[in-house]
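Please review this one:
***
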Amino acid sequence: MSSAIEMNDLSKTPKPAIVDDKPGGRLNLDTQQEASVTLWAYAATVILLVLATPMIMFPNFLLYISESSAERRNALTPLESYLSVNSGILLATLGLALLFNAPAGLGIQLPSTGKQAHPLLMPLTLSCSVIGLLSYNTTSVGALAFIVFLGSSVIAAWGWWTIMFSGTSYISRKTGADKRTSTFMFGNKAAASSKKKEWKKGQ
């Protein structure tokens, strides 16, 4: 006597979702942590921008808060002024980067090369572009301005290239296929040409 035994594939059985409804559970903890990080990012942004504003706009204000009345000077030296402006730009860049990358931030998405782009790529590229231009037009600090110009220009140029061109030469923007593959001889269905034909048929 033969009997048919049917076995179920348990790997394909959908598993019930586990939801933690208890106060202070894992899901609530993630939400609270996200809110805490967002609040910290806002506070840090405000503090950094407050520190950066006088360093960029009113560098002489640093003399008022750093020197006593008996030893107070009337103006900063060219080196002090140059370092103050550049430091203020970097502080403002760091503050804005924190703001744009907060977990529940303003919803502003800066252009980037993809999902794995570094959060400082766009802000630091912009700030180094500004610092490079300022250093190029600064002659009062000697060779220091030229050295800073070279360093910031390399970072800025490399950053702009990464933003505009990195990762786009081999991967098709329309189909997402690798352009280095081919259908020659073996008829590779994952090749870029095959993907493009399928994409055109679906239009």
Q: What stands out?
A: The CA atoms of residues 60 and 81 lie 8 Å apart. Residues 22-27 have pLDDT under 50 and may be disordered. The two ends are 58 Å apart (CA to CA). Residues 26-57 form the longest helix (32 residues).
